[in-house]
């Protein structure tokens, strides 16, 4: 018992120290970078607002959500706090400015997070199609993966193509060097990551796991995650030259050996430091590598942070 108490005391001490590290860094370095003052007039149409003939796919800093479709997962006040990473529906996220969705499914085509499930993938598809019908030139990266420990949904590629075929941007590495205007009316880059099924090949309506990469570190320590994100990002080629998307996630996650296991209070340890992270990317000389930037519980300021840097790139300010 004493050993367990000592271990928990040490963990709380480490968390407190890491929170202070980020707080001090923020006070000393600030959150100013090219485009940091920019605020899109219309977040629902922010890509259009930048000029679709000027916005190249490899210049975009894509605001994304982690575990995007978990707003209604589990049982309210019982299991939901342990798995909910977003409070908004997929449609509401897109309206707010989100352009990368992280969707996990099981063999029954239901969205899940670990062992907990929520609504079917048809709800996600419906939200996406509603958003696309209300806009004209916003492009979405839709990542769908079979959740760990589950089987691939039967005939899932066929289902997705039936539902989204008119919008799908086919797998082609030349896409990275094109403007949004050159891709329209196609508007979805769908990355399908099955568990066992063959991965999509060149020319397919779907992109494969090799086209969306990250270096996930499972920790609830905010400064550890922040530093890991910077380290791995600095090891990537510049976004302008690579033929895949690279994601950084501004999140920390609950750990089973810590008393605090609800997502929101844990991820809040790093949530407010998205702009600091972008600032540090410039300080460390790796801002040109930043591409997909995702978060839990996305808000307008996070979207603006990404859109502002995108605007600066489009205008040649960085």
Automatic annotation (TrEMBL):
Phosphatidylinositol-specific phospholipase C X domain ranges (all copies): 51-193
SUPFAM superfamilies xref list: PLC-like phosphodiesterases
GO BP terms: lipid metabolic process
Matches recorded under InterPro entries: PI-PLC_domain (IPR051057), PLC-like_Pdiesterase_TIM-brl (IPR017946), PLipase_C_PInositol-sp_X_dom (IPR000909)
Pfam families: PI-PLC-X (PF00388)
One GO MF term attached to the UniProt entry: phosphoric diester hydrolase activity
Gene3D superfamilies listed in its UniProt record: Phosphatidylinositol (PI) phosphodiesterase
PROSITE patterns xrefs: PIPLC_X_DOMAIN
Protein name as it appears in the record: Phosphatidylinositol-specific phospholipase C X domain-containing protein
Species this chain originates from: Gossypium raimondii (Peruvian cotton)
């Amino acid at each position: 018992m004493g050993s367990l108490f000592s271990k928990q005391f040490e963990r709380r001490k480490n968390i407190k120290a890491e929170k202070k590290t980020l707080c001090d860094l923020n006070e000393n370095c600030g959150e100013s970078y090219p485009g940091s003052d920019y605020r899109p007039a219309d977040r629902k149409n922010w890509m259009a607002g930048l000029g679709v003939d000027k916005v190249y796919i490899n210049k975009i800093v894509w605001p994304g959500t982690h575990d995007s479709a978990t707003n209604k997962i589990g049982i309210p006040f019982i299991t939901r706090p342990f798995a909910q990473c977003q409070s908004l529906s997929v449609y509401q996220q897109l309206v707010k400015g989100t352009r990368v969705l992280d969707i996990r499914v099981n063999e029954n085509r239901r969205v899940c997070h670990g062992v907990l499930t929520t609504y079917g993938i048809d709800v996600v598809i419906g939200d996406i199609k509603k958003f696309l019908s209300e806009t004209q030139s916003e492009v979405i990266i839709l990542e769908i993966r079979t959740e760990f420990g589950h089987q691939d949904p039967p005939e899932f590629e066929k289902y997705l193509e039936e539902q989204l075929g008119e919008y799908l941007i086919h797998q082609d590495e030349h896409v990275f060097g094109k403007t949004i205007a050159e891709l329209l009316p196609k508007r979805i880059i769908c990355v399908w990551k099955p568990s066992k099924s063959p991965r999509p090949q060149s020319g397919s309506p779907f992109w494969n796991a090799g086209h969306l990469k990250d270096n996930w570190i499972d920790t609830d320590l905010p400064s550890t995650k922040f530093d890991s994100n910077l380290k791995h990002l600095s090891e990537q080629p510049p976004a302008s030259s690579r033929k895949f998307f690279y994601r950084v996630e501004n999140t920390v996650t609950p750990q089973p050996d810590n008393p605090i296991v609800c997502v929101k209070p844990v991820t809040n340890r790093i949530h407010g430091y998205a702009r600091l992270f972008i600032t540090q990317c410039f300080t460390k000389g790796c801002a040109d590598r930043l591409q997909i930037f995702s978060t839990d519980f996305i808000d307008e300021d996070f979207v603006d942070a990404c859109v502002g840097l995108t605007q600066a790139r489009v205008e040649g300010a960085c």
